Amino acid sequence: MRSSNIFVALVLLMPAGLAAGDLPEAVQAKFIKLLAASAGSPGKVACKDASMAGELGKAGMTVSQGSKVAWAASESEVKSLKASGKLVICGKLAWLPEGAAIAIVEEGGKPQIYLHMGHVAASGVALSDSVLKIGRRL
User: Fold this and answer.
1) Is the residue at 53 inside a domain?
2) Where are the alpha helices (DSSP H) in 1-138?
3) How many domains does one find in the chain?
4) CB under 8 Å to 94, separation ≥6 — which residues?
5) Which range of residues forms the domain containing residue 114?
6) Which of 38, 44, 126, 133 is positioned for an S-S bond with 67, CB 3.0–4.6 A?
7) The sheet that has 87-90: what strands, in order across it?
8) CATH number at residue 123
9) pLDDT band (50, 70, 90) for residue 21
């Protein structure tokens, strides 16, 4: 299945009744998997958060601190991962100005992907056209 079709399938399969706030980790893990593949790092992501690492494992990902794509669970992680040159994915829109390149958030009961194009470019990682089309740019 093409990555753009996978994104559409995930969005359509999301329950409509999610409350405003963070997405469940299992949903975030599925999006992280797709984003990592889009960024040329299929199956691998750097992650220090034990809970998210478990969800990534369930989604078929390997946690590898050497990956060029990373999940940040805190604002301080965002800053340190950006400084190390990684493409940083997080679950808080407020962390994009702090150094995250991609935020996966819930809006109106559905997942949304936000892209900070300056931080994407600074990471040196190229995202697929399908991600660039569906992501909201800041």
Assistant:
1) yes
2) 3-13, 25-38, 50-58, 75-83, 117-123, 129-134
3) 1
4) none
5) 3-11+21-137
6) 44
7) 62-63, 44-47, 69-71, 87-90, 102-107, 110-115, 136-137
8) 3.40.50.2300
9) low
If you search the block for the tokens 């194009």, which residue do you land on? 117
Structure token digits, residue 30: 């599925």
Domain assignment present for residue 114? The answer is yes
Q: How many residues does the chain have?
A: 138
pTM score of the predicted model: 0.85
Tokens 């593949």 locate to: 37
Cα–Cα distances (Å) from 132 to 36, 113, 116, 121, in that order, read 13, 10, 11, 12
State residue 52's pLDDT score.
97
Q: Which long-range contacts (CB under 8 A, 24 or more apart) does 41-45 make?
A: 41/67, 41/68, 41/69, 41/125, 44/69, 45/69, 45/70, 45/71, 45/89
